[in-house]
Design a protein that fits this description.
189 residues; alpha+beta; 37% strand; elongated; binds flavin mononucleotide
C-alpha cells in the first residue's frame, strides 16, 4: 500500500503540479479555471492559460485582455480563486487569494515581449471581448495595437486545498499562509 505522504510533501507536490502546468501544454494544470466576483456580487468562472508560477511568492501569472469582464471585476474586488482537476492524476487543486492587475508596467512589458506573436494577435481583436456582434468576427491577422489591451493578472494565493482521489481513502489537505506562518491540516474529504 502506498504510504500516506507527509503534509509538506503534499504541499511540494501541489507546487510541482503548478510548475508543470506552466511548462507542459498537455498538463491539466495548464488551463485552470479562474473565479472572480462580478460587480453584482455574483461568481464568474472562465478557463485561462497558466503562464507563470513563482513558488517563493506563491504567485501565478495569467494573461488577459484589459477590456474583458474579469479585468474590470478585479478592479472592484481583487479576491480571486483558481480551480484545476487533473482526471489522470485524480487530483483537484483549489487556490484562493488576491489578484493584482498589471497594464503599463515592467511586469506587463516582460510578459508581452516574452509572448508568441500568435498569442499577441488575440489582443488586436475589435471590438473588445464580450461585445455583442451580429456574427463571429474574423481572427486578427496583424497586430493592431494589441499591447494597449494586454494585461497581466498576478494571483498571490494564501489558501490551497489539495484533494487526491485514492483507492485506499481520499486525501484532502488544506494549506494556509500568513505573514510569518504556514498552517497545514488534513481534512475529511
Ligand atoms: C483552453 C482555453 C484557454 C483560454 N485562455 C485564456 C487566457 O489565457 N486568457 C484569457 O483572457 N482568456 C482565455 N480563454 C477565454 C476565457 O475562458 C474567457 O472566455 C474570456 O477570457 C472572457 O472571459 P471574461 O468575460 O470572464 O473576462 C481561454 C479559453 C479556453 C477554452
Amino acid at each position: 500500500m502506498t504510504p500516506v505522504p507527509a503534509l509538506p510533501e503534499l504541499r511540494a507536490e501541489a507546487f510541482r503540479l503548478l510548475s508543470r502546468g506552466v511548462a507542459d501544454r498537455r498538463s491539466a494544470f495548464h488551463t485552470p479555471t479562474l473565479a472572480t466576483i462580478g460587480p453584482d456580487g455574483a461568481p464568474q468562472l472562465r478557463t485561462l492559460v497558466l503562464r507563470g508560477f513563482d513558488p517563493a511568492a506563491r504567485a501565478l501569472r495569467l494573461h488577459t485582455d484589459r477590456r474583458s469582464a474579469k479585468w474590470s471585476s478585479l478592479a472592484g474586488d481583487a479576491r480571486a480563486a483558481l480551480h484545476v482537476y487533473d482526471p489522470g492524476a485524480q487530483i483537484q487543486l483549489r487556490l484562493s487569494g488576491t489578484a493584482s492587475r498589471h497594464a503599463e508596467d515592467e511586469v506587463a512589458d516582460a510578459a508581452w515581449f516574452a509572448s508568441q506573436p500568435g498569442s499577441r494577435l488575440c489582443y488586436s481583436v475589435s471590438p473588445g471581448p464580450g461585445t455583442p456582434v451580429p456574427a463571429p468576427p474574423a481572427a486578427p491577422r496583424a497586430d493592431a495595437g494589441g499591447r494597449a489591451h494586454f494585461g497581466v493578472l498576478r494571483l498571490v494565493f494564501d489558501r490551497l486545498e489539495f484533494l487526491h482521489l485514492h483507492h485506499a481513502g481520499h486525501r484532502r489537505a488544506r494549506f494556509a499562509w500568513g505573514t510569518d506562518w504556514v498552517e497545514e491540516t488534513w481534512l475529511v474529504p
